[in-house]
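task queued by scheduler; priority normal; single chain, no ligands, no partner chains; default sampling; output format set to structure tokens
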Amino acid sequence: MEKIAFDDFKKMMESDVMSGPSCIEVEFCIDNFSEYDSCWLGKMGGSNHVKFERALYWYGLKPDGSQPYDFESFDDFVNAPVFRGKSIKEIWDSVTLYSIDGCTVDFMLPVYLGLD
């Protein structure tokens, strides 16, 4: 479990997902919010089956699929008040990442930041 700077998160989410079958998937929790203990967020642009005109940012906050959210811009994504009326940007210091793309944060974040 890791905390990362918001600027590093923003840079990671700026990665190109449109040029191939690519996406970013992050498992995370919000500290001290028991209802947000295993959430997902990401960015997708295409797959082997579907190609979007532009990237789509998304949240999957509940395992039963009851709180999905999709956004067409990063600004809308990070400023949406989906966490008890607050945005992820407002509560970033309480966000703990479990994994990025199914790998450890320590392994994947440098790849997205161009540090590998």
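post-processing summary
- Helices lie at 6-13, 74-79, 105-112.
- The first strand starts at residue 23 and ends at 30.
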